[in-house]
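tool_call predict_complex ligand=magnesium ion
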Amino acid sequence: MTLKVVCFDCDGVLADTISSWVLIHEHFGTGDTDMLSRFIAGEISDAEFMSDDIRQWKSVQPQIHRDELLRCYSGVKLMSGAQQVVEALRERDVASVIVSAGVDLMIGSIAKLLGVDDWAANGFQYDDDGYLLDEGMVTVPAHDKGALIHKLVRIRQLQPSEVISVGDSSMDLSMHIPGSQFIGFNPRRPDAHDAFTDAGVPVVDSDDLRDIWPHLFPGESFIAVGDE
Ligand SMILES: [Mg+2]
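tool_result ok
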């Protein structure tokens, strides 16, 4: 098979962040680990989870401007090797795409920084003055990120075998559509490591994205662009 597209999760894969949602919670001093566990278990929907997050932030500060949310991401760093991997893929005419259930404010800026070919994420709605509304916008269901991969395969007229997805959480396994490949990268949650092992996918226990390279191109180790 010829690799044509690599689909990356963002939080914990391209961005050195736990979660773009958690960064807003840290700003407002909110966050409910019980809701997160229920969400991971599939007991509440993406829309319910998002509106509950917004409710928590607004209980601290009723009026929240888009610029304030954007500032929550000012300290975000790329994962080590992310820039180099995207560049090296581009050199080989392999497209890089982000499929993230994270916040579009952050995912969009990472996408721009890396110059990826396409991206999808979840987002907010605002009033005419830029203040946050109560309901979010679900584009990427966290438990069914595969819907976006199927769409990508259809639009770009690919074979699933030409696609490899890279994720760090158990929910990212939904990107592993039949016929495609999946790489588990740096799973920080023990349940993610177990889920990857159970699914029989390769796991890269490293926090440098260049270490996925031998799984993208078997037999090769990463060679930085310009060093060849
Ligand atoms: Mg992630």
